[in-house]
Amino acid sequence: MKTKPIVLIAVIFLALFSEKGLAQELELSTGITHKFLMGKQNDFYSPALGIELAAGRQELAPFSADMITWGLNVGIFRMNRISAGEEDSTGQYQQLITTKGTYRYDYYYNDFFSFFYGADAGFQFITPKSEQPMTVPANNGTRIFTRAVVAPNVGVNFEFNPYVAVYYKLQYEVGKYFGEQPLWGSPSSKWNHLLTNAAGLRIKIY
């Protein structure tokens, strides 16, 4: 069970690169992402820090000099449980692996700055874990829970040259569990909301 998310990431990236490998404009990016839970779940989990990898194809937008990018984003995160004085919750966390399709529209202000807006949509796979294996509930520790997510976003790019840029992204993410959800501190609602800050590097291959 533990290897399935890693295998899934490998298969998706292989499929994407085989499809985009001959594209004239391919963008690769990586960034550090900070996810902050909103609502009731904020009482149970601390903000998550992780890494996102993305690959996409860039195309010139119709009737303008702006760019459209679409592709795939994969993220790996760890979200620690807040103990709130509970000894049995020490060291418990959720491992989150996210796979999303992405769309982005870049509006160029000048040769160096561009502003963008877009949206991601896909699935998040959650596995409850613990640094103390004996504290993992039997019906949680060997399971992978699935959540659908939609995430509109805005941000800015700074381009050093046509091939290398850095970016900042602000994103609102809404998600809903399919079926059951992890038991650790779960409110009754299967919906959750997150605010995401991300920054990283983009590399373009023409």
| Unreliable segments of 5+ consecutive residues | none
Residue-averaged pLDDT, rounded? Answer: 81
Shape category? elongated
Q: Given the structure, what is the number of helices?
A: 1
Instruction: Indicate the radius of gyration in whole angstroms.
Output: 18 Å
Q: Which sequence of strands runs across the widest sheet?
A: 1-2-3-4-5-6-7-8
Number of strands: 8
The proportion of residues forming helix, as a percent range, comes to: under 10%
Oligomeric form: single chain
Protein name: Outer membrane protein beta-barrel domain-containing protein
What does this structure look like?
- With 206 residues, this protein is mainly beta.
- 8% of the residues lie in helices and 58% in strands.
- The protein contains 1 helix and 8 strands, in the order H-E-E-E-E-E-E-E-E.
- It has one helix at residues 4-20; strands at 26-38, 48-60, 67-80, 92-108, 113-130, 145-159, 164-178, 191-205.
- An 8-stranded antiparallel β-barrel has the order 1-2-3-4-5-6-7-8.
- The longest helix is centred in the first third of the chain and has 17 residues, at 4-20.
- The protein is elongated, with a radius of gyration of 18 Å.
- The mean pLDDT is 81.
- This is Outer membrane protein beta-barrel domain-containing protein.
